[in-house]
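Students often ask why we bother encoding 3D structure as a string. The short answer is that it lets us treat folding as translation between two languages. Here is a chain of 428 residues written in the first language.
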Amino acid sequence: MLAGDPCFDRLLAALPHRDTFRRALGVAAGQRLVVINSTWGPRSLFGDANDILPWLLDGLARELPVDGYRRCAVLHPNIWHGHGPGQVRAWLRHAEHAGLTVVPPLGPWRQALAAADAVIGDHGSVTYYAAAIGTPVLLGAFPEQDLDPASPVAELGRTAPRLRPYEPLLPQLDELLKEHHPDRYAQLAALASSSPGASAALLRRTFYGLMGLPEPSPPAYLPRLPAPAYGDGPTVVPPATPLLTPLRVLTRVYDRRPTAPPEVTVTRYADGPGPHAHPEPSAAAPGPLFAGQTAPQPAHPVASHTAVHEDVPDATRLSLADLVLHDSQPEPAAWTQDAMHRNRHCAMAACVTAPDTCLVRIPDGRLVTLTAAPGPDGHHDRCDPAVYASALYAWYERGRPLEDLLDGLTVVTGDALHHLQVTITPPR
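And here it is in the second language, the structure alphabet:
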């Protein structure tokens, strides 16, 4: 091969840093990262005349538990330049409020690919690269008529499974991940480059040969991909925004004492689950049992409440809130008191005060601080601390004394456990 593929080589070199990229993108333990990718044009996923993308974004928000999945969109720069950043942001705003991270056109899309558990895309090169590095791919659009049948991208269309529009989305994702084999796209990797990892040396040799100059003595290399950064610049990810869509929260309490702290399972859905969302577990179902735990006492039935961020775009939704949320307030204790007065129908107000901490005011005026212990990898727990407030709500709503939590509380989201320290401050 004359040149190899520098983009593919940088992706391959980045794969050992996958966990670093996932942490930088806010993917918590037990979460899956789903990347939605579209090239440009009328038969791309973004431009499809059947409006698959709006259905897809809505399904990702409504069907997937927000604490079990992270969602990220990578769109071709021509989409941004053709429609304008303002229009693209307007189209994606509701999805962003429900947790979608939108990578800007010059942003760290390669890092998002390296971090992804699954990619839903089309016939563009980004989706092809995802398959070539071994990521499960689901094709949401694929215009065979636009492609040379002998091209590598056409081979992707013959190999990757297709999205079934307007059918339940979560079972399709589960099937994709269950049926995927790491070597499924080995042929696509071979077609991407016959000299993987060698493009820097090949290109430099070719360029200096064309100029009739000797090559420099230091070895040629490609700059490594840095961890995604947050900010307002064109090459970084926009600052993470809180979930501004109302959340329907399903909870179940398990009292594992005296062998373990009480446990609350929390599952949150944006805007309430859609018609094909996870079914509520039956009241007779046993709770999850993890290593070192004994069988718990019978669980309470599944309960639900509504949690709403105070900055929700539709302020009328605050009247539905059992739990009012905020984040990064300069005076969180004062905010919780003011929020309880402003929203007299709510039972609690909670403010996220740190990446692993939440401050909650309960009806009798006491303040409860919930702080998560570091994860098994030594890093901060990356679960949204507002989840902890929902666990406290579930415990309190059942008439359980808060003092029973002083020895700790375990919160379960999906397959992940979060061990909390609970501190109670009397009202002033």
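Translate back mentally: The two ends are 74 Å apart (CA to CA). Keep this in mind for the problem set.
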